[in-house]
Amino acid sequence: MRRRLGSVRARASLGATLVVAVALVAAGAAVLLALESSLSGQAGAQADRAAREVAAELAAGHAYDRLSLDDEDRPVQVVTEDGTLVAATEGLERISGTGTDAVRPAPGAARATAQAGQAAPTPDDDDDADVGGDGSADGGGDASSVPRPGEIGEDTAFRDGSATVDGDTADYRFASVSVETDDRGALAVHAGAPLSSEHSAVGTALTVMLIGFPLLLAVVAGVTWLVTRRALRPVEGIRREMAAITASADLARRVPEPDTHDEVARLARTTNETLTALQTAVERQRRFVADASHELRSPIASLRTQLEVGAAHPELLDVPGAVEDTVRLQDLAADLLLLARLDAGERPADARVDLAALVREATAQRTGVGVDAEPVEVAGSRGNLGRVLANLLDNARRHAREEVTVSVRRENGPDGRWALVAVADDGDGVPEADRERVFERFVRLDAARTRDEGGAGLGLAIARDVAERHGGTLTVRQAPAGGALFELRLPAA
Q: Which CATH architecture fits 351-491?
């Protein structure tokens, strides 16, 4: 189970399902709330209309027993100011939510209310009302602030409750309005509209959601699973091919590249590029090991032969030759160690090096070398840069006819400031077709350049690698005198 949940398909399907589930729950809750609010508003409008119909009948002077209170779906109460129930729907057995729990008018309540209303003075009784000269009632009050008989209140109060009519209990939305009558004073009418349609609609919608949402989530999960599976099928092909390459160690194989332009196709192309670079590096390493073994075999064999001859015939021991082979072996080991460090990604030190001073130091013990150097500093390893200059000078000296020239100057180009070191000889030069090959490891050109005595073909390769590690370049072209011109460019400090 853990392994399945650890797959991309399972996580994508689960994530999509959870997102859709949250969205559906939020949308469902909003729909239910909106539906409930709408239906509750409709029930409130019906209750308000019913309450105002009864209030209109009361304002018109209808007796309590002649009011329209026989609708079983519309429980109605008529209550006086002191909370006395004076009229109610026939068959009303229980009610809550109106503020008056009584369901039967109190005995004599209707008659007492009518008598009180008849005894009360009205604005039409000119003989009983003492009206001032300004048309206001005695006492100086504002007549417009006193409710006039027959007036129905503009405000409606809504409450939710329940009622039992003829044995049927249901939930209702109650509306309460006030009315001022001529003979019975202020009355309150409470009328209810059933909420059964609201409950039914909300229940139906909730049932549909409880059934439909899981089905929809199952569909989302299944579709996401299938789509993700189809999208990741090329990735699985890449994984299988990489596993086969790892098992067989055949770096010539390549993973399949989908005929698309998406991320998976770019992944396949990048993987193949990585395999190509890895194959090149491995082949280069194999050639390096083979060439190094070959180069090491000669001085070791020569040194062994001389030592064996010296052991048998001490008078025949060639000490200078043994020393020469030992030095040659030592230099080759040092070159191989430096190349190994460069291949491992060793970064140069971040010290300031004056190339002019370094060139003068490198040429101090060499004859036939002309120097034209202006001070310019670069950042890097003094030892490695000195090794580059020594290799270039040794290479130029071996192939020059008479003279080697070294110049150092500063260059300002569009890509920044550079320090340029040029080493030129007056030899035969390097053919254009071989100007990149000379920087390969263990490469020694034919003809004049094969006169190297003890050279393993690593000097120029080391020089270029060091230059690149310092952010620079090392190239070769024809010198003005006809020989080879090696140019080392490094970023100026």
A: 2-Layer Sandwich (3.30)
Judge whether 479 and 485 are in contact, CB under 8 Å.
yes
- The pLDDT value recorded for residue 121 is 43
Whether residue 120 is predicted with pLDDT greater than 60 in this model: the reply is no
In one-letter notation, the amino acid at residue 43 is A
pTM above 0.90, yes or no: no
Would you kindly state where each structural domain of the chain is located, as residue ranges? 1-121+149-244, 263-343, 351-491
Q: How far is CA 74 from CA 37, 56, 110, 247, in A?
A: 20, 16, 21, 84
CATH architecture of structural domain 263-343: Orthogonal Bundle (1.10)
Q: Cβ–Cβ contacts within 10 Å for residue 297, how many? A: 10
SS3 string of the chain?
A: CHHHHCCHHHHHHHHHHHHHHHHHHHHHHHHHHHHHHHHHHHHHHHHHHHHHHHHHHHHCCCCHHHCCCCCCCCCEEEEECCCCEEEECCCEEEEECCCCCCCCCCCCHHHHHHHHHHHCCCCCCCCCCCECCCCCECCCCCHHHCCCCCCECCCCEEEEEEEEECCEEEEEEEEEEEEECCCCCEEEEEEEEECHHHHHHHHHHHHHHHHHHHHHHHHHHHHHHHHHHHHHHHHHHHHHHHHHHHHHCCCCCCCCCCCCCCHHHHHHHHHHHHHHHHHHHHHHHHHHHHHHHHHHHHHHHHHHHHHHHHHHCHHHCCHHHHHHHHHHHHHHHHHHHHHHHHHCCCCCCCEEEEHHHHHHHHHCCCCCEEEEECCCEEEECHHHHHHHHHHHHHHHHHHCCCCEEEEEEEEEECCEEEEEEEEEECCCCCCHHHCCHHHCCCCCCCHHHHHCCCCCCCHHHHHHHHHHHCCCEEEEEECCCCCEEEEEEEEEC
Please work out, in degrees rounded to the nearest 5, the angle formed at the alpha carbon of residue 112 by the alpha carbons of 111 and 115: 85
CB contact at 8 A, 95 and 101: yes
State which amino acid sits at residue 338: L
CA 56 to chain centre: 66
Question: What is the per-residue pLDDT across 219-274, written as a single tens digit (0 to 9) for each?
Answer: 999 998 888 888 888 888 888 888 998 888 888 888 888 888 888 888 889 999 99
Helix axes 263-312, 319-343, angle to 10 degrees: 170
Strands across the sheet with 168-180, in order? 85-88, 76-80, 186-194, 168-180, 157-165, 92-96
Query: 122 versus 246: which is more confidently predicted?
Result: 246
**pLDDT score at 407:** 93
Q: How many beta carbons lie within 10 A of that of residue 178, not counting itself?
A: 19
